[in-house]
Every structure is written in structure tokens, then in C-alpha cells.
Write a structure and sequence with these properties.
The chain is of the alpha/beta class and about 325 residues long. The chain folds into two domains: about 220 residues, 3-Layer(aba) Sandwich (Rossmann fold), CATH 3.40.50; about 100 residues, Alpha-Beta Plaits. Helix content is about 30%, strand content about 30%. The chain has eleven helices and 16 strands. A six-stranded mixed β-sheet has the order 6-7-8-3-9-10, sandwiched between helices. Strand 4 and strand 5 form a beta hairpin. It starts with a strand and ends in an 8-residue tail after the last strand. The structure holds adenosine-5'-diphosphate. Adenosine-5'-diphosphate binds next to strand 2 and helix 1.
Length: about 325
């Protein structure tokens, strides 16, 4: 039995289809990630899996429990860190964990609390008020509260959004330690670099699955060679090379232009020359290994951008510079 299983899971709000018939399975011990831009339907899926909202159609089970029919069983076994997870600012770190222990009816919580404070390296901060913690520390405390009842599966909705890079790294170390304990992690992220670290990735847009596979297998689906060109003005360069013979696709990421070209045709140098001849200043260019973002943008079928690594969708390449 898979830990999480959905069959044609769908959710509509009036005419809007937020989640459009998703079927997937997540196995024990996986670090599974839903990745997609804002509005893709990631949080809606998590909320359905945690039994918070009802699907419009389709079914979902977590640890064999139907997320609608067996809600009371479900909440004992799962942890949910929502985007709006609220700590109590006027309580200390210790008191917050105690509060969540009581909510989950965990009577003997002190040993587990020590373990979690160790685990999240929060022991020195245990007497500080939650309000006085940095963003990264708050998120670690929220995770500790989510883990107090020793759930078998945790659902993390964009746990690192808005968290500084150092705390993000710290948070990821904690997640990998949790995996060693055999916990199954189901998370969402708008960051494709984070998705690269997961065992499997479900790429989503407009409520639909674009692909579901390991990051390696997804990258291997890229048929062309990828070149990264840093140049100015980048949007003009994009318009010049788009549709060039042998260029499968041009993708814009801020000041970076990525070209996906037919393999073994050696056209890149003539493309670079052509750009220079048209007055484009080339600061650097190199061949790069395909990244998930290249595949994702390609699958979305139209231009999108990543801003500070966060996937965002736009309908028109002209807006990206
Ligand atoms: P993501 O988590 O990928 O950003 P969401 O699951 O939050 O996406 O939202 C998917 C779509 O469903 C969005 O268009 C959003 O505006 C819409 N949506 C989400 N919740 C509601 C709601 N309670 N009422 C109406 N529309 C909603």
C-alpha cells in the first residue's frame, strides 16, 4: 500500500478548476515535492490530503485512510505545516511546543520536546518568545510543533518561502534527517532548485500534472543541449535567437538567456556571432547541464521566468525584462 494515493482528485471553485484530476502515489520514506508557480493548485492538493477541504470529485487516501471518511484517524498520523501556521508570539519556544503537544493529546511530551529541540538546534533559544525569533527560527519551531505527536507523514506547504538562504539550508538538513527516521515528506515549493533535492517531483501548472518522476528522469527527457548566455539587452537577444534554425527553444531567466539547441549541430558559435553582429553585448556563455527549470518552462509551452529562483508564470516574454 502506498502512503499517499489519489485517484482523479479534483477541486473546483465555481468555474475555476484549481485541481484537475490528479492521480498519484507516494511511497513510504519519500521526499515528494509538488512544484509549480503561484496558483498551480499545490496548496489545494495538500489541503485535500490533510482532510481540510473536500474534493469536488475523485478520492485520496493517506496511510490507508480516506481523507474525508477517516479524518479523525488521519489527524493522529499526519503533521501539517501550512503557509499560515501560527505560533503564539507571547509564548516561549518551549511553551509553543507544549501547547501543540496538548492539542494533539500528547501527555508525555518532554522527552520528545528535548529530541525535537536537539534536532532543530533550538535548545539555546528555548526560553525566547516566539515573536523574538528570526524567520528561519520560527519556521524550525513550527516544524518542531508539527512533529510533536510523531507523525508518520508530514505535509509542508512552501516551508521555505520567505526564509533566508542560510536558514533554508538548515531546514533542508533537518528534512534529510527526518527522512532517515523513515518519515514520509510531502511538500510544495515554487523553487525548482529545491525540487531537485527530492526523490520525486510532480510538476504542476493550472491544476494539472505536467510530469511526475525523479529529477534525474525529468532532466533526461530534455532532448537538446542547453547553453546559458548572459547578455544585454537580453530581451532583444531573445527575440533574435527565437526561431533560429537549430534552436529548439529560447528561455529567459532574468538577465540569463538559455538556448536549447539541437545536439551535435555546433550552431552555438554562429548564434553568438550573430548576436554580437546585431549589437548585443555578451558577458559570458557556456554549455550547462539541463536543469529542472529548463524542462519545466519547456513543458509549460510558453515563456515563464524564475525570479530569485522562484518559478513565476507570465503570458508574454516581453514582460520578463
Ligand atoms: P498554489 O498553492 O499552487 O499557489 P492554490 O492551490 O492556492 O495554488 O490555488 C489554486 C487556484 O485555486 C488559484 O487560482 C486560487 O486562486 C484558487 N483558490 C484556492 N483556494 C480558493 C478558494 N477558497 N476560493 C476560490 N478560489 C480558490
Amino acid at each position: 500500500m502506498s502512503v499517499i494515493e489519489t485517484t482523479d482528485l479534483a477541486k473546483s471553485y465555481g468555474k475555476l478548476t484549481a485541481v484537475d484530476g490528479i492521480s498519484m502515489k507516494v511511497e513510504k520514506g519519500e521526499l515528494f515535492c509538488l512544484v509549480g508557480p503561484d496558483g498551480a493548485g499545490k496548496s489545494t492538493i495538500i489541503r485535500m490530503l490533510c482532510g481540510i477541504i473536500a474534493p469536488s470529485s475523485g478520492t485520496a487516501t493517506v496511510l490507508g485512510n480516506d481523507t474525508q471518511k477517516d479524518k479523525s484517524e488521519l489527524v493522529k498520523k499526519i503533521g501539517y505545516l501550512s503557509q499560515r501556521f501560527s505560533l503564539y508570539g507571547d509564548l516561549t519556544v518551549d511553551e509553543n511546543i507544549e501547547f501543540f503537544a496538548r492539542i494533539h493529546h500528547v501527555r508525555e511530551f518532554t522527552a520528545r520536546r528535548e529530541e525535537l529541540l536537539d534536532f532543530t538546534r533550538m535548545k539555546e533559544a528555548r526560553s525566547r518568545l516566539a515573536d523574538k525569533l528570526s524567520g528561519g527560527m520560527k519556521q524550525k519551531l513550527a516544524l518542531a510543533c508539527t512533529l510533536i505527536h510523531s507523525p508518520e507523514v508530514i505535509f509542508l506547504d512552501e516551508p521555505t518561502t520567505g526564509v533566508d538562504p542560510v536558514s533554508r539550508r538548515d531546514f533542508w538538513k533537518i528534512l534529510s534527517n527526518l527522512l532517515h527516521e523513515g518519515i514520509t515528506i510531502f511538500m510544495t515549493t515554487p523553487y525548482l532548485d529545491e525540487a531537485e533535492r527530492c526523490t520525486r517531483v510532480a510538476m504542476m501548472n493550472h491544476g494539472k500534472l505536467l510530469d511526475l518522476d525523479s529529477p534525474q528522469n525529468i532532466r533526461d527527457k530534455m532532448r537538446g543541449e542547453v547553453y546559458e548566455i548572459i547578455c544585454s539587452p537580453v530581451r532583444e537577444a531573445y527575440l533574435i535567437v527565437k526561431g533560429w534554425n537549430g534552436v529548439q527553444e529560447a528561455q529567459l531567466y532574468g538577465d540569463r538567456l538559455n538556448l536549447i539547441v539541437n545536439p551535435h549541430e555546433n550552431i552555438i558559435e554562429s548564434v553568438i556571432d550573430a548576436l554580437k553582429n546585431k549589437g548585443i553585448t555578451i558577458s559570458a556563455w557556456r554549455k550547462i547541464p539541463p536543469r529542472l527549470e529548463n524542462v519545466f518552462v519547456s513543458m509549460m509551452g510558453h515563456q515563464s521566468v524564475t525570479v530569485s529562483g522562484e518559478l513565476q508564470e507570465i503570458s508574454d516574454a516581453n514582460k520578463s525584462t
